[in-house]
Amino acid sequence: MDAGEKEIFIEGHPCVVVDSVRMRYRVASSAASDEDAEPSKPRLLRRAVNKPHMVTVQALNELSLVVERGESVGIIGRNGSGKSTLMKIISGQSKPTSGAVYASSTPIMLGVNAALVQDLSGDQNVILGCLAMGMSRAEVDEKFSSIVELSGLEKSIHLPMKSYSSGMASRLRFAIAASVDPEILLVDEALNTGDAQFGDRSKLRMDELREQAGCVFLVSHSLDTIKAMCTRVIWLDKGDLIMDDDPEVAIKAYQDFTRHLSKGNNVSAAKILDDAKANLVATEVRGRSSRRSRG
Amino acid sequence: MSADSAIDPEPVAVQPLSVDMRRLTRVGSRPSFLDYLVQLWDFRQFIFYDARARVQSGTRRDRLGSAWLLLNPIFNGLTYFLIFGLLLKTSRGVDNYVGYLVVGIFVFQFSSGAITSGARSIRSNKSIVQAFNFPRAALPIGANVRELLSAVPLILAMLLIVVVLPPAEDITWLWVLVVPAILLQSLFNLGVGLILARIISRVHDVTHLLPFALRAWMYGSAIFYTYERFVTHPQMLAAIKLNPLFNVIDIVRDCVLYARVPQWQSWAILAAWALGALAVGLVYFWKGEESYGRG
Asked: Hey, of B5, B22, B25, B40, which one would you mutate to test binding to chain A, going by the most A CBs within 10 A of its CB?
């Protein structure tokens, strides 16, 4: 694998190291199963147990990244390219099939996070969520009013969660998750909802957080947002890393690619993809002076 | 995997990066057992808030509200009294059969409720598990604290019934011993709950078996009959009497109904079960820490 290049020595302590992470899912498929896929099991038995045909989905192929303090990394790609999977792995919500993520502090993900308890009221959920993030009761009391204000729920905060509309619930979720000031911040904007008024407020808070954070990962379908906020862009396609470059370069290539695709030029789109891939320099992480021995 | 590309190039170049890993920790990694216990202690406010909030909301959907915490075991006791006391006459040879039955049912129900909710705590709170990073054992512990809180009115009702219903028993200083017995019982519940919680988070099917196992356990715990009446073999009888729940029930009956000091053997058996189950449960649950809520 070693292309004979010199090892680059990274000074200081990086924020996040993604080391040869790979993600594979086993999921049920409704497609008719291959008869010879599982010849050992009689068909009748499989019917009786009613286990659907299982297929393996490669959500993310082997990927390594080193992100240093002060970087904000935008992740772009089509639907199903593995953006959210990568975010989930970095935040620790899913465990990669192989490889590992190392971080200097607990990464916090904003967006779908902070799932809540349906039977409890909004204010109880605020307290519970904050305590679950490791705040003390005094800190929660201190932040409580600003969380409620950010959520914009006003009086509805005392109603049980199950009476909330999905927009209200996601506003509350965001407000709870945004109440900590994390060093490593992950933002999955593709999953953010809310009306325009809330949009402004959450954007303000998000900008604040982004400024305070040591490093930021951002998934967004708005390329303008990414261009404005990020210092580095990663382009994923079907689980493969395609590009890891300056925002200008990567976004331009990605825009070319999607333009060709939308015109139906699959061949030329594939060519852009292959060109980008051919120029990609993959990272190999070599831990130094770590107590852990790396295989 | 990339069906779009004509060729599937391997990464052309690999750039090794030397990274200082000393200050990094693996995301989602399991702490050492002692650190884990310390973390749990740090999350005590979360545990208690979770328990308290849910006791209040548990019966909010019912018109009679919290009254069901009492009505439930009372109806249960009535059913068993009709069938076993009046129809099958298992009451023969039992002093104060109503009291005997009530104590058995109320005390057993505390365990069966606590074990069930402890066992399901990881599964039913999957969204919280996925959203926040906290020691997962906080959930089964929270569930058990909650059951203990809602057991307080239950136990008071039980004592009231014993005092009011003929043959009315006198209140003696022995009643105080009910408290340590119930506390030991709840440690035992927690231990079993922790073990089951890990199993159920892996194999959900076990939830379907749990009610049957608990029912069998109940019939085997001398709730509406005495062991002496059916088991004549002395060794067999001694073996059956190792049942931890029988020992709690026996202790409470001795204290409350028969005004005699419970045998030290009962205490020893109960304490051994409680501490043993708790130790095994904590270690077993901690070993699976990285797997909860993932997949």
From this structure: B5
Q: In which domain, by residue range, is B119 found?
A: 33-54+64-289
Contact across the interface for A237 and B46, Cβ inside 8 Å:
no
Q: What is the pLDDT of residues B77-99, one digit of tens each?
A: 788 778 777 777 777 777 888 88
Inspect the interface and report whether the beta carbons of B53 and A120 lie closer than 8 Å: yes
Cut 0.90: pTM above it: no
Tell me the C-alpha distance between B143 and B61, whole Å: 19
Give the pLDDT of residue B56: 72
Residue contacts between A and B (CB atoms, under 8 Å) = 196
Residue B2 lies in a domain: no
CA separation for the pair B100, A34 (Å, rounded):
61
Q: Which stretches of B81-137 are DSSP H helices? A: 97-124, 126-131
- Please identify, in words, the CATH class of the domain defined by A113-181: mainly alpha
- Which of A58, A89, A108, A124 to probe by mutation at the B interface, max B CB count within 10 Å? A124
Indicate the number of domains in chain B: 1
Chain mean pLDDT for chain A: 79
Distance CA B228, CA B236 (A): 11
Q: Please tell me the predicted confidence (pLDDT) of residue B290.
A: 84
Asked if the structure places residue B259 within a domain, the reply is: yes
Distance CA A31, CA A94 (A): 26
Task: Please state which CATH class domain A35-107+182-287 belongs to.
Answer: alpha beta
Is B10 domain-assigned?
Answer: no
Is residue A293 pLDDT above 50, yes or no?
no
The residue-averaged pLDDT of A191-215 equals 71
Average pLDDT over residues B40-65: 80
Residue B74: both structure tokens together: 């009372």
Interface of A with B in 173-212 (CB under 8 A): 177
Question: Given B28, B49, B125, which is nearest A95 (Cβ)?
Answer: B28
Per-residue pLDDT reduced to its tens digit, A67-122: 888 888 999 888 888 888 888 888 887 888 888 888 888 888 775 545 577 778 88
Query: Do B21 and A131 count as a contact with CB atoms less than 8 A apart?
Result: no
Q: How many CB atoms lie within 10 A of CB B112?
A: 19
Does ipTM exceed 0.90?
no
**Within a domain: B99:** yes
Minimum distance, in Å, between the CA of residue A267 and any CA atom of chain B: 8
Instruction: Please tell me the least confidently modeled range out of A7-11, A162-166, A245-249, B148-152.
Output: A7-11
B60 and A CB contact within 8 Å:
yes
Domain ranges of chain A: 35-107+182-287, 113-181
Nearest CB neighbour to A7, from listed B18, B42, B134: B18
In this prediction, residues B261-287 reach a mean pLDDT of: 94
d(CA A181, CA B144): 32
pLDDT at position A201: 75
Tell me the H-state helices in chain A. 43-49, 83-91, 122-132, 137-151, 166-177, 196-212, 223-229, 247-262, 266-278
Residues 123-162 of B with CB under 8 A from A: 125, 127-128, 130-134
Q: Distance from CA of residue A188 to its chain's centroid?
A: 6
